[in-house]
Write a structure and sequence with these properties.
92 residues; Serine Threonine Protein Phosphatase 5, Tetratricopeptide repeat
Length: 92
């Protein structure tokens, strides 16, 4: 079930819905985290990183109880980006 959710999360429609949530609820750290997950699942790691960083920034200001999850997501996508960069560099 989780894999199915992540496939849906990565879909264009889902990312569009998450971007709309950011427009509607710009003060919510969770909407930036959700958008980051959508970008991550679509392989758009730079956009994912930016949204996770925004979630952490906003979550820190609001003492969000999900702050550790946002940080874990940033660590995960940072590791993915590093692995992708190393793979690309190794292929040259």
């Amino acid at each position: 079930m989780l894999n199915l959710r992540h496939k849906f999360f990565g879909s264009f429609r889902r990312r569009r819905a998450c971007r709309r949530n950011v427009e509607l609820y710009p003060g919510s750290a969770n909407v930036y985290d959700s958008l980051g997950e959508g970008y991550e699942n679509a392989g758009k790691l730079e956009l994912a990183t930016a949204n996770f960083q925004k979630a952490i920034e906003m979550g820190t200001k609001a003492a969000d109880p999900n702050l550790s999850a946002y940080s874990d997501h940033l660590k995960r996508v940072t590791a993915e980006a590093k692995a992708a960069a190393e793979k690309t560099a190794g292929a040259k």
